[in-house]
Amino acid sequence: MLKTLAYNARRLATLARDPSFAKVEASDLRVFESICGSNYVKTSDIDNYKTDWTKAFKGDPPCVLLPSSTEEVSAILAHCARRRIAVVPQAGNTGLVGGSIPLHDEIVLSVKRINKHFEFDETSGILSCDAGMILELLDNRLAPYGYMMPFDLGAKGSCMIGGNVATSAGGIRLLRYGSLHAHLLGLTAVLPTEEGTIVELGSAHRKDNTSLHTPHLFLGSEGQLGVITRVTMSAVPKPASVQSAMLGVDTFESCCKVLRMAKRHLSEILSSFEFLDREASEVLDEALGLKPVLQSNPRFTILVETSGSNAAHDSEKMEKFLDDCISSGSASDGVQAQSIEEASAMWRLRESAPLAVAADGFVYKNDVSLPLKHFYRLTEEIRTRCSSLAKRIVTYGHLGDGNSHLNITAKGPSQELYDRLYPFLYEWVNAHGGSISAEHGIGQLKLPYASLGKSPMERDLVRRVKAVFDPKSILNPYKSF
Amino acid sequence: MLKTLAYNARRLATLARDPSFAKVEASDLRVFESICGSNYVKTSDIDNYKTDWTKAFKGDPPCVLLPSSTEEVSAILAHCARRRIAVVPQAGNTGLVGGSIPLHDEIVLSVKRINKHFEFDETSGILSCDAGMILELLDNRLAPYGYMMPFDLGAKGSCMIGGNVATSAGGIRLLRYGSLHAHLLGLTAVLPTEEGTIVELGSAHRKDNTSLHTPHLFLGSEGQLGVITRVTMSAVPKPASVQSAMLGVDTFESCCKVLRMAKRHLSEILSSFEFLDREASEVLDEALGLKPVLQSNPRFTILVETSGSNAAHDSEKMEKFLDDCISSGSASDGVQAQSIEEASAMWRLRESAPLAVAADGFVYKNDVSLPLKHFYRLTEEIRTRCSSLAKRIVTYGHLGDGNSHLNITAKGPSQELYDRLYPFLYEWVNAHGGSISAEHGIGQLKLPYASLGKSPMERDLVRRVKAVFDPKSILNPYKSF
Asked: Which UniProt keyword terms apply here (chains A, B) (predicted)?
């Protein structure tokens, strides 16, 4: 994975530094020190801030600023706007597309020290917290109330809520709880103006029709509109019962039928509907030695999870669903997990799929949304086009969300394979009504393709909205807007 | 109700016509006729378009335009922008605050004829439809697939999806399915520019992180950014089982306790948590002859509804919830509806509350969101302040959403009572972290108070976002942005 990212990253090397941005001078550092304190203006030992965790993207910031409050962020941005110093906001730095890494010498503004405020109303279920709070910590703080965060990510131990909002993080509970749009209610942000404008947007109410719903504009804004310093959102009751099952399915059409049956039978408790093709099962076995749970070697494997409040009810619903899938012939095989161990074995297969393809060789990874009728056609199309050059073509993903992770592995990097894949793959996705980035965003990785499928009118509108928030164009420059 | 609205509406009479708007001339009408066809440029018989259904707000539009397509809307707005003719977009015209009614001689652009397109993917549950489609019709079209719209309103027989999106309609399923933010994925809108810019925003995917999530900016925009002509959103599986129960509760604190217990016991199936105080029960009996379901004359009455996929499971959960409420002493009385008739009797009480206060006399209505700790304190505060002048002070509402409908009735209109109530009530709500408009919006009714609780920075940001979409300031002028 790392190598592919680096491969794409190289394509951006041609994007020259904008000479109209000021270079940070000693006098700027003194101003920053007077704002944050000298311990929190770092000029050395900043590798973790200038490199993303995939190591594919690396910037050259002259300093990293670690303010501890909204007011400090405001003073920093006011100074940067007046001096026209470019700034990249950063939270947990766990993104996969280089969005929180400078391209050149933009300074890094980390919100990790803005992490004190936590307020939760256990009757309304509404949470207000600082942007630098780590997702897992928030989950832990909510647990004693019987609540949890409405989304979950692999990076939960280090990603921060401010970054989750800025990237509209999806994750593995989206099918049940919806996207962050379903939960975000308000936020505090600092705009990169000469005044370092602090805006409080939205409120702490589930219903508030008194103004434009501007907080939602920050979801997916990738740090290009303002620096989020506080978030208000709804949390959800923690499920008392989580159950898993695996099904073997012979055709992709039947996978869609099983999804429709899951929605009918499991309705309010359906929380995951994950997908692995036979190639994914094979690479799990061959590269990692992980044997399949289903013995029938099915063409497709579906992993279904429910999250509910009553184990007996949930289990009964799941049994009925499985019975119906088998008796109607929609699925050829099905197993309900009878213990946490059995459920873990199922999830291990799904969660290890990225590791398995990485172990298989050099891998070209993708994260796309597609209408379900085209979901697996993309894989077949790429197989026809690339199998002579590829080692393996493997698809897994969040079928319930229409989100495919198509992986092409090869013995090593190949310009020929790369050119066979791109931009063909993105253009095919676009031509079939899909999205070239489902959950990871644009960042630096997909910047060359950010306009695909967008009209000039949409691009223009987005640029002008960006200019309202960032009139001096200093916030996360060179990126998609 | 009608009289109160008219009362507030009079306060706006001082807002003079902006002389920089062009007056519609015969040549403009000819242009509109060439775009829509002469049958669809109406200059007479337009009462239903220039008056809202409460009859409180009445504009004086020289014509009503009824385009049948996005392209016709584009041609109309391009002409209006070039000539600087002011335009009020209108869908079902069922709003309660005069938002879709001209203040002076703005023309009315109705989307009701843009109502042909309907496309539904029963595997993904994603719907795409024209803005002029009526909510109830959409529900009917989804029913054969086992799906329904994720929100429901009293006006469902005449309100249209384009208007629902523009006003961020809340309604009675919000607790279960979330606000429209949870469901909106994309839309087509026409901007009031000299080009009549058509923008396709968002997509038809549950996950799409390729641009700013601009569709969400239209939720609650009240027709001030652009004219929505098509909407893409998710629908939800129709519940197989809907159950109701009523509880009597002695203190407001216990109401909150019962809400917390409902979230724990009913979790994923909890769909309504409605509230009536004793004064509401009394006025239902005295004004409409509707006897209470609970015989114990409790201080507060809670109506709980579940929507789930399995009647036996849902009923068992409800029984356990009621048992726990009674045995813990949180509720003093509780009845589970055993039939549709019994459930209807419960809902009749809640749904007739607005009619009961209207029958009781002249009524000052309110629609506010409040943190739950202050929810009933507002009523008590108003009681202390106004009971000498009021006939009755009655509160009902969506307690599960923090949305209070506080009603003050009097024998007739009273300037003294009005001045005792306003702006005190709005200022109190604002000072206690509430919102002066939970679900109805600002429109004309609350325009004098639209800035309450908003910072100058927020107001300025909203105005500048408005200018990006509507550079000539012709769309729904005189309103909140």
From this structure: FAD, Flavoprotein, Oxidoreductase
